[in-house]
Amino acid sequence: MKVAVLAGDGVGPEVIAEAVKVLAALRREGSAFEMEQASVGGAAYDAAGDPLPGPTLELARAADAILFGAVGGPRYDALPREKRPERAILRLRKELNLFANLRPASVFPELAGASTLKAEVVAGLDILIVRELTGDIYFGQPRGIRELNGGVREGFDTMRYTDEEIRRIAHAGFRAALKRNRKLCSVDKANVLETSQLWREVVSAVGKEYAAVELTHMYVDSAAMQLLKNPRQFDVIVTGNMFGDILSDEASMLTGSIGMLPSASLDEKGKGLYEPIHGSAPDIAGKNLANPLAAILSAAMMLRYSFDQDRVAARVEVAVKKALAQGYRTADIFQQGTRKVGTREMGDAVVAALS
Ligand code: NAD
């Protein structure tokens, strides 16, 4: 197994160094994978004039998984669109056909107080949102702004999904549910939208192939409410691009800390790009302040979803829990009575907790 390590800009290299530290510790114990680094984002633009240079894309293609940090920063904000660091991630998703976005939202009991919801509502929360990433109203044609009779202007977009696109994201949702608590909730708006009626029909048909998974359906407005009222009822949610965009951000806020949340974008065969959901955090970059746990938990997702090493992945997650239980906290999750540490020390604490 080969991992392409693309650390990027800002806090990206700092948090990825800690994830690599954890992976290197696992490798010393016998997990078989190799890692190779390449530049991406602003760093790659500085070195090669392109946020995704040819050799980086080739490495990403050849690898079984990509561990990605973050890209971007104020220095690059004035660049033309094609040269902006953020283009690298969009191009990687497109070139590698990464259509399934997996966003877990879990609340470690020690951090339940950081949520804006009551601790008893979110403590122990562990949900996964599987969002389709390449279709829906964000890409549907026709779209535009046109002038109607009398000079009235009209903006319009097209929501569309083919049954094949629905089928493949449904499979991704069911496969993820099989690795967890075997409950899948498909979210749509089938009471109003034709696209959603087809969605519900196809997801239900795919469900017949997964007898071990309990499938339910929910309208998106109801799902938005239930995520706030009783989020622990969910295990895996599968949904389209726009609904998933909104619900995954809502779910991430249940946890109260952006430095804790990993994500994955997968292709049909399980190859994936794994990254923390946070950006390059230029305000704290280079200060040993960033929380590396989102990057470390992204590496754990990589072990689970691309390498099928569920037990090793669980070991990493347990090590993170242990480090938190021992009181280690980076500044973003620090509370009185706990032990404030920097990025590197948090990585060390997780490595120590592995054994
Ligand atoms: P951001 O996620 O970088 O930062 C938002 C806030 O969260 C900041 O206060 C930051 O200090 C804090 N934060 C982020 N990660 C943290 C961590 N690991 N530990 C502790 N605190 C953390 O979002 P932003 O400020 O809107 O964007 C900064 C840059 O990152 C921009 O150039 C943006 O385009 C880019 N960005 C990149 C990605 C990506 O690479 N996938 C995603 C989002 C934003």
Mean pLDDT: 95
User: What share of the residues lie within helices?
Assistant: 40-55%
CATH architecture classification of the largest domain: 3-Layer(aba) Sandwich
Could you say how many structural domains there are in total?
2
Describe the structure concisely.
The protein is of the alpha/beta class and 355 residues long. The protein has twelve helices and 14 strands.
Task: Draw up the topology in text.
Layout: E1 2-8, H1 12-28, E2 34-37, H2 42-48, H3 54-62, E3 65-70, H4 86-95, E4 100-106, H5 119-122, E5 126-132, E6 144-147, E7 153-156, H6 163-178, E8 183-188, H7 194-207, E9 214-219, H8 220-229, E10 236-239, H9 241-255, E11 262-266, E12 272-276, H10 293-305, H11 310-325, E13 328-329, E14 339-340, H12 343-354
Parallel strand pairs: 1-2, 1-3, 3-12, 5-10, 8-9, 8-10, 13-14
Antiparallel strand pairs: 4-5, 4-11, 6-7, 11-12
Helix pairs in contact: 1-10, 1-12, 6-7, 8-9, 10-11, 11-12
Can you describe what's shown?
- It contains twelve helices and 14 strands.
- The radius of gyration is 21 Å and the shape is globular.
- The mean pLDDT is 95.
- It has 355 residues and is α/β, with parallel strands linked by helices.
- It has a ten-stranded mixed sheet, with helices on both faces. A two-stranded antiparallel sheet has the order 6-7. The chain has a two-stranded parallel ribbon with strand order 13-14.
- It has two domains: 1-99 and 267-355, Isopropylmalate Dehydrogenase, CATH 3.40.718; 105-257, Isopropylmalate Dehydrogenase, CATH 3.40.718.10.
- The longest helix has 17 residues, at 12-28.
- Helix 1 runs parallel beside helix 12 (343-354), helix 6 crosses helix 7 and helix 11 (310-325) packs across helix 12 (343-354).
- Helix content is 40%, strand content 19%.
- It has helices at residues 12-28, 42-48, 54-62, 86-95, 119-122, 163-178, 194-207, 220-229, 241-255, 293-305, 310-325, 343-354, and strands at 2-8, 34-37, 65-70, 100-106, 126-132, 144-147, 153-156, 183-188, 214-219, 236-239, 262-266, 272-276, 328-329, 339-340.
- The protein starts with a strand and ends with a helix.
- The structure holds nicotinamide-adenine-dinucleotide.
- Nicotinamide-adenine-dinucleotide (NAD) binds next to helix 4.
